[in-house]
């Protein structure tokens, strides 16, 4: 391994790491328009090896959306370069606002106020929104947060 790469890894290992993963399975909360994930055991150890089949929508749980998800005639995930996925991270914490207003949406004014306090967000930065909605995991009903008419309420962009 090159000396430069070793130094880079040493720096990264000393940084604070935050694991944002959740165990994924048929009971995982999901967008209400999707059916629950299906896990089927194809072979067990009694057959000589363990193998499963998984069926679920691509936009299920925490994931990376391909540009094509929202914009017609753009790229799929496999068309993104790996280096495009390694970015500086900024987290805008609006968890208090989301707790008070379950329909809270981040505004341009919020971003400008963040920049006023913390400095300009560079164009190649990944901006994450903290709402603490993840604390409702893994309860589907709490994640959906439906009103009496069956409409979901959750914070977002």
Key terms:
single chain; 157 residues; alpha+beta; two-stranded antiparallel ribbon; two-stranded parallel ribbon; 13% strand; globular
Summarize the structure.
The chain is 22% helix and 13% strand.
Q: What would your notes on this structure say?
A:
One of its GO terms (biological process) is L-tryptophan catabolic process to kynurenine. Pfam families: Cyclase. InterPro entries: KFase/CYL, KFase_sf. GO terms for molecular function: arylformamidase activity. This is Putative cyclase. The chain is an alpha+beta fold. The chain has a domain at 87-157. It is 22% helix and 13% strand. It contains four helices and four strands, in the order αβββααβα. The chain has helices spanning 3-14, 95-100, 108-118, 140-144, and strands spanning 38-43, 51-55, 89-93, 126-130. The strands form two sheets. A two-stranded antiparallel ribbon has the order 1-2. A two-stranded parallel ribbon has the order 3-4. A hairpin with a 7-residue loop joins strand 1 and strand 2 (51-55). The longest helix is centred in the first third of the chain and has 12 residues, at 3-14.
